[in-house]
Amino acid sequence: MFVGHYSVAFACRTERNKIPLWFLFVAVQFLDYIWATLVLLGIEKLRVIKGFTAGSMLDSYFHPYSHSLITAVIWSVVAAFIYKTVCGRHSRHYNKAAPLIIGLAVFSHWILDLIAHPRDLAIYDNRWKVGFGLWNHRDPEFALEIALLAGGIALYLTRNAMPVVREGAVIAFGIALVIVQIGDTYVPRTPLMDKATVTGVWVFYTLFVLIAFAVEKIGCRRKINAP
Ligand SMILES: [Zn+2]
Fold it and tell me: 17 CA to middle of ligand 1, Å?
């Protein structure tokens, strides 16, 4: 699962909880940030194999600290706690339900990975591996990613008040994410080494976080300057 994760970020943001979209973009990929970092440090292991599954080249044969069920729950609680501690003190718009939403957003990553991944997600440590393997079916997996993303963006647009210019930017961002997914799923490429692959993960995910931040700033200034 790739851009489908962002559907949860879009869907979680409401006028009521006022969680910044960029923060939710980090939350839904929090487990992959940890994974990419641990692979870079040589602690978790990855092989990049052309044609490993129809929709992905990633053979994550050892990622018990970032992607086991037990650690996914722990990381979700940690993220909720961080949000509560940092934003509870410093944010003007802090909402009591927000830490729970952040925790669920982090955990949603594991559930969506469970649908796409082959049997490489451990329940505990590196044992009892599960995964429904939708990545073995390229078109349905792609369709699911896009359907989730479209649904998430539709919810975001209906549940948040914003100027038309920002609505347009959100839709353009959504289209850009679809193009990225088309590239990832359908454009053949030579597999990179494991560390180069996860560096790419860090760079792309962070780029999306920055765009999410910028998108929510569009049209803000006009509001502040209004009499
Ligand atoms: Zn993942």
Answer: 26
Coil vs helix vs strand at 210: helix
**Predicted pLDDT at 226:** 47
CB atoms within 10 A of CB 200: 12
Whether the CB-CB separation of 143 and 4 falls below 8 Å is answered with no
Least confident of 19-23, 109-113, 176-180, 221-225: 221-225
Note the pLDDT tens digit of each residue in 55-107.
888 888 999 999 999 999 999 999 999 999 888 777 777 788 899 999 999 99
Give the Å distances, CA to CA, from 160 to 88, 105, 156, 208, 211: 22, 18, 6, 20, 18
Maximum distance among all Cα pairs of the chain, rounded to whole angstroms: 61
- φ and ψ at 118, to 5 degrees? -70, 180
Centre of ligand 1 to C-alpha 178, Å, is 18
DSSP secondary structure of 140-197: HHHHHHHHHHHHHHHHHHHHS---HHHHHHHHHHHHHHHHHHHHHHHS--PPPPHHHH
| Cα 176 to averaged position of ligand 1 atoms, centre (Å) | 21
113 CA → ligand 1 middle, Å: 6
Asked if residue 174 lies in contact with residue 153, where contact means CB atoms within 8 angstroms, the answer is yes
If you measure from the C-alpha of residue 77 to the centroid of ligand 1, how many angstroms do you get, rounded to a whole number?
A: 17
Q: Give pLDDT, residue 220.
A: 80
Q: Specify the pairing of strand 45-48 against strand 58-62.
A: antiparallel
Q: CA torsion 53→59→62→68, rounded to 10°?
A: -40
